[in-house]
From TrEMBL:
Residues 4-118 form the Sugar 3,4-ketoisomerase QdtA cupin domain. It comes from Methylophilus luteus. This is Sugar 3,4-ketoisomerase.
Amino acid sequence: MSHFTILNLPTFSDTRGSLTVLEKALPFSAVRTYWIYGADGQTRGGHRHVSTRQALIALHGSIAIYMNDGISEETITLDSPSQCLLVEPKDWHTMTFGTGSVLFVMASHIYDRSEYIDTPYELPNK
């Protein structure tokens, strides 16, 4: 069980394929959407936010998301378009992309560089 929130989105499958529905699933309104691709083997992110919430979906491939909220840390692998990881403002995160991966991101605020916190948490030695 994850310390972080992973939504299992409603998905309907039959012989024609699968359809996943995002309608009313997010606990915030998405005002900015973007996708990251062509980042094979690269690690991106490395920040948290002042107030922006995000929702991440691996539309294709596999992406390892390192999450750290200052209390817990965990690496969550997104590899199904029916799963959505919620990233709260306090969540320091990095994303490491597998070959051919596409990450779809929805954010609660428009881009504002001053909203980013680039200093990671330091967890006490366990």
